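Need C-alpha cells for this chain, all 454 residues.
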Amino acid sequence: MIFLVGCSAGKNYKRPAIDLPGQYAGGSQDSSIAAQSWKEYFRDTTLLTLINTAVARNFDLQLAIKRLEASRSYARQAKAAWLPALSAQGVVSTSNPSENSLNGISLENFLETNHLEDYTLSTTLSWELDVWGKIRRRKEAALAEYLQTYEATHAVQTSVVAEVANGYYNLLMMDEQLRITRQNIALSDSIVQMIRLQKDAGDVTELAVQQAVSQLQNAQLLEPQLEQAVVLQENALRLLTGDWPGTLSRSDLDNIITTDSLSAGVPADLLRFRPDVRAQEMALVAANARVGAAKADLYPALTLTATGGLNAFEPDKWFNVPGSLFMTAAGGITQPIFQRRYYKTQLDVARAERDQREIEFRRSVMQGAHEVTNALVKLDKLKSQQRIAGERSGTLDQAVRNAQLLFRSGMANYLEIISAQTRALQAELEQAAITRQQLSARVELYQSLGGGWR
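Here are the C-alpha cells for all 454 residues:
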C-alpha cells in the first residue's frame, strides 16, 4: 500500500521547448525595462497620480481581484482534499409495522409493543487513499488555476496602466492641437481683415474675401470638434480611474519627461515578465494535471470508512455508556468497469485540452515577441518622422510669413497665402499627432515587454 500511495498517474509538467530568437532586431540586450515599476518608468507627476488612482479604483481591476479571491478559495479547498471527511448526525425514528407482518408479530411477542423506536448519535469518518495521485493532481490543477488567475490579474493591471498612459498622452495631443487651431483662427481672422482692406482698395475681388472667410470657418469648425474630443477623453480617463465625469489637470505635450534608455532585453524575458504568457503557462500546467487526474479515475479507488456513536431503542438508555456504544469500520475498493465510456471520454477530453493549452502558450510567446518587435520598429521610424515633421512645420511657418509679406507688397495673390496657411495648420497638427504616437509607442513597448504590474 505504501508503494501504491507513492505512485502518481500522468506525467509531471515540463515546459515545452520553444525556439526563441536570441535577440530582437534593433533592440538593446541590456536589462529589460519591464523590470522597472511603472512608478519609475513614467516621469510625469500628473500621469503617475492617474495611474495610482486607477490601480486602486479601476472597476476591471477590482473584478479581477475578486476573481483571484475566489480562485484562492478553490486552491485552499483542493489543498485539504487529501484529509479525511468527518461528519456527525443525530437520528430519532419510530416504526409502526403491520400487526400481521413478521416484524409486527415479533415486536408483539418479544417486546410486547406495537412500535419500535430508535435513537442514534454518531460520527462518520471517510477517507479515500490517494493511491494513484488523483487528489494530488487535482490539487496541482487547482493551484495552477489560482496562479493563472493571479497572473491574469497582473495582465489586467498592465492593460489599465497602458490605457491610462495612452489616454493621457492623447489628451495632451488634443490640447496641443486645440492650441494650434485657436492660434490659426486668430491668424486666419487677421488675413480676412487684410484681404478685406485689399478689396476696399480695389486690389482683389469679393471672391478673395470669400476664400479667406472659408479658410477661417474651416479652422473654426475644427475648434468645437477638438473641444468635444477633449471632454470625451477626460471622461474616459476618469472612468478608468473609477471617478465621475469632470475635468482633469495635466501638463503640456512639450513638457513630458521620458526616459532615454529603452532596453528590450532578450525574448526569453517574456517568460518571466509577460503576465499573459505566464497565465497561459499556468493554464497548461493545470491542463496537464487534469490529464493525470482523469487517468487516475480509470484505476481502483480505495476508501476507508468508520462510524461510531450511541444507539438505543429506549430514550432512557440512549446515553447508557458503554451499553449503547457501537462502532463499524470498513474498507472498500471500487473499480470502474463499464460506465458508458464516461471516464475514457474524460481522459480524451483532458488530453485534447492540454494540447490546446500548449498551442495557446506557444502562440502567446510568439505574439509577445511580435508585439515587442513592432513597438521597436515604431519607435525607430517615428523618430525619423518627428524630425521631418518638425522641419516641415518650420518651413511652412516661414512660408506663411513670407506669403503675408508678398501679399502686402502685391507680389503674391490671396490663393497663395491661403494655401500656405492651410498646409502650415495641417503640418502642426500632424507634428502633435506624431509626438503622441511616439509616447504611445513607448507605452506599447513597455506593455509588450510585460511592464506595468509591479
